[in-house]
């Protein structure tokens, strides 16, 4: 499920977003940003926000994952800073790829994916969205093998319900 990225209401391209997450990942490697790990609730912090882009730092303890989702009207990109993540994404069926330290992904409009730390070590990743995230749609694959949207959440946080740096859930009760 991809769409023409020229229709995205942003002057940024997927290439620029990917470059941005790589730049911020380098800042994280240099120790410029605090990272916390929380095995109970996934942890994230917004590092940057402007009219066109928001950038998030997200940590993953073993087995932590998202659900199948898209980023509504936003393009996205991520760079893995430490550890290893597995991205499961929809391409007419569920496919899987491993994103190792330094690797990453680009998410055009309509990209549906789930991200999981399938390793036994913590992982850290930097994510960027443009325009800034406003909503996420969640999906499941039915018994017939078809992708079905199950719910939608209005949120500016790619980890709705996860604790922020202040320890306050960005959106209570929504996962
Ligand atoms: Fe995502």
CATH third-level topology = Jelly Rolls
Structural class: mainly beta
Beta strand count: 11
Bound molecules: fe (ii) ion
What is the CATH-assigned architecture?
Sandwich
Mean pLDDT: 88
| Assigned CATH class | Mainly Beta
Instruction: Please give the radius of gyration in angstroms.
Output: 15 Å
Q: Measure the end-to-end span.
A: 23 Å
- Taken in chain order, the helices and strands follow as HEEEEEEEEEEE
Strand order of the largest sheet: 1-2-9-4-7
State the helicity in percent bands. under 10%
**Main beta-sheet strand count, sense and barrel state:** 5 strands, antiparallel
* Overall 3D form: globular
Give the low-pLDDT segments.
Answer: 1-6, 166-175
The CATH homologous superfamily corresponds to Jelly Rolls
Measured by DSSP, the beta-strand proportion falls in 35-45%
Q: How many domain modules?
A: 1
Structure in words:
The chain has 1 helix and 11 strands, in the order αβββββββββββ. It is mainly β and 175 residues long. The protein has a single domain, classed as Jelly Rolls (Sandwich), CATH 2.60.120. Strands 1-2-9-4-7 form a 5-stranded antiparallel sheet. Strand 1 (43-49) and strand 2 (54-60) form a beta hairpin. The radius of gyration is 15 Å and the shape is globular. This is Cysteine dioxygenase family protein. Belongs to the cysteine dioxygenase family.
Note the topology.
Blueprint: H1 14-29, E1 43-49, E2 54-60, E3 69-70, E4 75-82, E5 84-90, E6 94-100, E7 104-107, E8 113-116, E9 123-130, E10 135-141, E11 147-154
Antiparallel strand pairs: 1-2, 2-9, 3-10, 4-7, 4-9, 5-6, 5-8, 10-11
The structure holds fe (ii) ion.
């Amino acid at each position: 499920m991809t769409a023409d990225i020229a229709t995205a209401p942003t002057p940024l391209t997927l290439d620029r977003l990917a470059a941005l997450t790589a730049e911020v990942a380098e800042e994280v490697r240099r120790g410029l940003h605090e990272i916390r790990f929380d095995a109970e609730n996934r942890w994230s912090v917004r590092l940057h926000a402007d009219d066109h882009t928001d950038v998030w730092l997200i940590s993953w303890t073993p087995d932590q994952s998202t659900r199948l989702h898209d980023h509504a009207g936003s393009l996205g990109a991520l760079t893995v800073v430490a550890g290893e993540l597995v991205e499961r994404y929809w391409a007419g069926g569920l496919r899987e790829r491993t994103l190792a330290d330094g690797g990453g992904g680009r998410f055009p409009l309509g990209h549906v994916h789930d991200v999981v730390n399938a390793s036994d070590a913590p992982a850290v990743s930097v994510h960027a969205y443009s325009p800034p995230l406003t909503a996420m749609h969640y999906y499941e694959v039915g018994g017939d093998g078809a992708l079905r949207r199950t719910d939608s959440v209005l949120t500016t946080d790619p980890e709705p319900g996860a604790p922020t740096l202040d320890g306050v859930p960005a959106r209570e009760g929504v996962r």
